[in-house]
Amino acid sequence: MAIQQYPDHDKIPPLTCLINYYIKPYFGSLIMNLFATLQQFVPQQQLSKVAGRLAASRHPYVKRTFIRSFAKAYNVSLDEYERQSFNAYESFNDFFTRELKDDARIIDSSANGIVSPADGVISQLGQIRDHKLLQAKGRDYDIGQLLANSEEGSYFADGSFATVYLAPSNYHRVHMPFAGTLTKTRYVPGTLFSVNNTTAANVPDLFARNERLVCLFDTEYGKAAVVMVGAMIVAGIETVATGKISRTEDIQEVDHDMSFAKGDELGRFYLGSTAIVVLPKAAKADWQDSMKANSVVQMGQLLGVANAK
Predict the structure, then answer these.
(1) Which of 59, 193, 210, 213 has the smallest number of Cβ neighbours within 10 A?
(2) What pTM value is reported for the model?
(3) Residues of the chain whose pLDDT is less than 50?
(4) Contacts of residue 66, Cβ cutoff 8 Å, sequence gap at least 6
(5) Which residues are known catalytic residues?
């Protein structure tokens, strides 16, 4: 049997190539289910702690090895970034959360526009129906569980959402999808499953089980939220309001009064993860027809319009 050739074969990391082109077509569902199941037996918290220590190391050999290996594996270019040399970064974390040039992204200025909070891929977006958000085909989860607050979950019932997955090679800062005043952050401890499409399709309630930071805002159309969801090997979540979040076994709530314009930086992930935008029914969000599952997006790109009056 001849092996199919793919046009960008040489640009894809070897492991991704192996999985996508040679394993999935023949053993797809079996292998992917096994991948999701095995994650339950991995010491997720300990693995993330070890990864965090290595990623924060400023030892010249450690940081150079991590940065250059990662850049080669994911074909990372620094053309869009403020610092143009791999040697300019103090650690792998510093490199991973690297800042863009000022003009690298345009924040869409459409009236009442809701923009993507990050570079990445749309995992899912749409309406919240019967308190449920779509996680993947055939799987949904409860908005109250995601926010770790049933009263707030009821408020967002029949609202809308957009889930953006940040792949390892993406720009890893999260920005405001709308203008608003941050009123509360809520750290919710949890598991650290991978948040890629394979895991989303196979792990029930993934985003409502993983570690996350819920950011709640007052906006012109009522309360809204941005949820930053952690994942396996993610060494931490940080926001401009809280600094880097310290992991605990208990929920942490902090009140805030901090105003943000659309496009302002909200926070960052130390390794890849997911950001979920949650809007109330009153926003009457109308998502762009071009925005659907697996659409590639950039931070600041128009996702839809809030038609609240």
Answers:
(1) 59
(2) 0.83
(3) 1-12, 25-39, 41, 43-44
(4) 54, 55, 92, 95
(5) 119, 175, 273
